[in-house]
Amino acid sequence: MSKTMKEMIAAHAILITQARAENDLITEKTSPGDQGEIEARFELIMGEAATLQTRIDNRSRLEAAEASVSAGDPRRPNGATEARGVEGEAVPIAYRAAFHEYLQAGGDIHSMGAEARGVLQQGVSQFSDEQRGQIAGTGTAGGFLMPDEAMQQVVIAMAAFGPMFADGFATVLNTAGGASMPIPGVDDIANEAAAEAAEGGDKGAGTDVVFTRKTLEDHLRTTGWLGLSIQLMTGSMTGVEQLIGGLLGERAGRKVNRELTVGSGSSEAVGIVTGASVGFTTAGIGFTADEVLKFIHSVDPAYRQSPKFGLMFNDATSLALSLLKDGDNNYLLQLAPDGTQRIVIGNVAAKFTINQAMPDIGAETRPMIAGDMSKYYVRKIGGFVLGTDRSKEFWPGMGIAGYQRFDGVVADPRAIKAMVMSA
To answer: Which of 38, 67, 94, 277 shows its CA 20 to 30 Å from the CA of 105?
Structure first.
């Protein structure tokens, strides 16, 4: 750990200690004026701590990336099939290094060293006839899984275009194969245990539990072809990973996030908006603060207690909400002390997420959902797969395209409700 990193961590700890000391000054006897000053100092300190924490995280990521690059590319410049350690022992080629050699070879696997070619085969992903049709133009029988380091760039880029594919938002199921995957459920929230019968009395028939079932399928979405120059292909490993991951992730992110948000369920995922049940229908095209409160309360309290309960809407709807005030003249959208965005109205304080794939406010649209987001299931099948095209269209470089297989479904429509605009 560098000296600079140690100093930053120590400074961060001091700030947190100062913030705790300020917070402890507030007691029942603290006057409103003094409390306001204390809270202002507290927010200022926490803001400095958050900025410093970001610098610490960035430095840690940078040092980890530099260490990975140094350790993960053991190939010799002469193209030999093995590298030698300081003690003369053979060092196996990492998959990341083999994948980079594949790009440097212009997608020609036969130009690679034997060992690198063998390592690359570990990440091969064969295309089915249907998949080859969707990735029009590929001259190969399959593609290769992105290395973990490059995959991180894809995930980050995809998350920037919406939350639906991110691991922490919904319930994510990672599977190797794409066979139909049933998701069983129980519709029993309205039932409770019967009263105890008297000794020898009739116990009654009881209430049957209603079982439900949703199914996750296998849908494939491609990024379309992206041309790579020969200069980029032969550049640094980290630079290639960042650029390819960012560009392909951006393209895949828009498609996947849109489908997981508003997909129809016909040959595509059932979007979270599509699968949500109707919670509240507004009186007009738009909403009032009271209607927002009624909408939130349309979700059963059992689901509102979930740590993943929240609301979701796009930026335009966020602006409309930002202009609304409650009965105490407070704006509905506020920033919590921990930095999270929250909607505060009545006795409800809930986090919210901006998703640009959400519908706009309009006649009969669903611009807002609320509920336990863990009841939306996202299935990720395999990893992000890369295919190449060495045709004359891309010469002297090559074309690359990626695909992701996935599906999504609302497992419990009662857990996630949609606000519907009036006609």
So the answer is: 67
